[in-house]
């Protein structure tokens, strides 16, 4: 875990979902592979050919953007997939219930944090998938329903400032009182930090369990 620019008095915590509120390498890789397979079908390429093409695009993008990484959602738009289509694919392909189960430790952690902070989720998955995921983890009621911000809320893909600004507005907090928490610096932290938010880079949900300690909550 690594902390950046933490505010003296934060009031809102904005969580990434995948790889942050749960750790499940097989499910995470399955999401990426499923989208690449579907993209390959559209472009008449095998899974391997499509994966190589996406990797090549992402390498070039990183080279042109000072080494920053883009998200798969971002790459899909470069391969001609509209946001509505990407939302539909994700809704069709992703079944969190096949991989995730209730996480009592996460529920306890978020319950502690919710006493002192407003909580939101900002994810590149659609709201429908986000809600299913939070329900599987047993933490759906830890977030106000309007504060689950997905790909189809602002209709942009992280990395982008819009969903973070939206989250701050919904939670009634200025950016300087918000902390973005996620597992990918370039996707979850870089732009929030530029907005004046704090950031916490986690390796997975195990680090999220430690957050009450970071914020000195007993
Ligand atoms: Mg993530």
3D structure, described in words:
The chain has 218 residues and is of the alpha/beta class. Helices cover 51% and strands 11% of the residues. It contains 11 helices and 6 strands. The chain has helices at 25-43, 47-64, 72-78, 83-93, 104-116, 127-137, 151-154, 162-171, 185-194, 205-208, 211-214, and strands at 2-4, 12-15, 118-122, 148-149, 178-182, 198-201. The chain has a 6-stranded mixed sheet with strand order 1-6-5-2-3-4, with helices on both faces. Helix 1 packs across helix 4 (83-93). It is globular and about 55 Å long. The relative contact order is 0.22. The structure holds magnesium ion. The site of magnesium ion (MG) has 7 residues, from loops.
Q: Reading side by side through the largest sheet, how are the strands ordered?
A: 1-6-5-2-3-4
Please trace the helix and strand order, writing H or E for each element.
EEHHHHHEHEHHEHEHH
Overall average pLDDT:
96
List unreliable stretches of 5+ residues: none
Q: What portion of the residues fall into strands of 2 or more residues?
A: 5-15%
User: What is the straight-line distance between the termini?
Assistant: 20 Å
Number of helices: 11
Structural class given helices, strands, pairing?
Answer: alpha/beta
Bound molecules: magnesium ion
Alpha-carbon Rg, integer: 17 Å
Please count the beta strands (DSSP E, at least 2 residues each): 6
Largest sheet: 6 strands, mixed
Residues in helices, as a percent range: 40-55%
Shape: globular
């Amino acid at each position: 875990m690594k902390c950046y620019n933490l505010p003296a008095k934060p009031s809102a915590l904005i969580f990434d979902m995948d790889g942050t509120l749960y750790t499940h390498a097989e499910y995470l890789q399955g999401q990426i592979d499923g989208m690449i397979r579907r993209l390959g079908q559209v472009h008449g390429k095998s899974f391997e050919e499509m994966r190589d093409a996406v990797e090549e695009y992402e390498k070039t993008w990183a080279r042109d953007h000072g080494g920053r990484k883009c998200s798969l959602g971002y790459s899909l738009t470069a391969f001609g997939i509209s946001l509505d289509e990407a939302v539909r694919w994700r809704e069709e392909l992703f079944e969190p219930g096949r991989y995730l189960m209730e996480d009592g430790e996460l529920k306890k952690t978020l319950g502690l944090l919710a006493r002192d902070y407003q909580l939101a989720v900002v994810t590149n998955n659609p709201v429908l998938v986000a809600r299913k995921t939070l329900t599987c983890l047993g933490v759906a009621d830890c977030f106000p329903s309007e504060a689950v911000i997905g790909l189809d809320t602002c209709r942009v893909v992280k990395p982008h400032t819009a969903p973070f600004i939206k989250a701050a507005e919904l939670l009634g907090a200025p950016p300087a009182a918000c902390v973005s928490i996620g597992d990918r610096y370039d996707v979850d932290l870089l732009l929030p930090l530029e907005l004046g938010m704090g950031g916490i880079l986690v390796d997975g949900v195990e680090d999220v369990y430690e957050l009450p300690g970071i914020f000195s909550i007993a």
